Amino acid sequence: MMNRLDGVETKLGAIYEESLEMKSDIREIRSIIDSLIDPVRIGWDLRENIREIERRVTEIEQKLVN
């Protein structure tokens, strides 16, 4: 997912106005991903969290396509 976010950020380089909102979303998603590292190590079931991250990253990617 981090690689996908990196790709999205690269595409945003040419789109300034929309990129401010999307960059904020990307920062929030990165923070959420980072917050999952310790719970994963503990063995918590985070599938629902990961599905939500997947949905949000896909949403940003779709905005870039349109």
How would you characterize this protein structure?
There is one protein chain. Helix 1 runs antiparallel to helix 2. Helices cover 86% and strands 0% of the residues. The mean pLDDT is 84. It is built from 3 helices and no strands. The longest helix is centred in the middle third of the chain and has 27 residues. The two termini are 21 Å apart.
Rg to the nearest angstrom?
Answer: 13 Å
Strand content: under 5%
Number of domains: 1
Number of strands: 0
Please describe the biggest sheet, giving its number of strands, its sense, and whether it closes into a barrel: none
How many individual helices?
3
Low-confidence stretches at least 5 residues in length (pLDDT < 50)? none
Task: Provide a concise account of the structure shown.
The chain has 66 residues and is mostly helical. It has helices at residues 2-12, 16-42, 47-65.
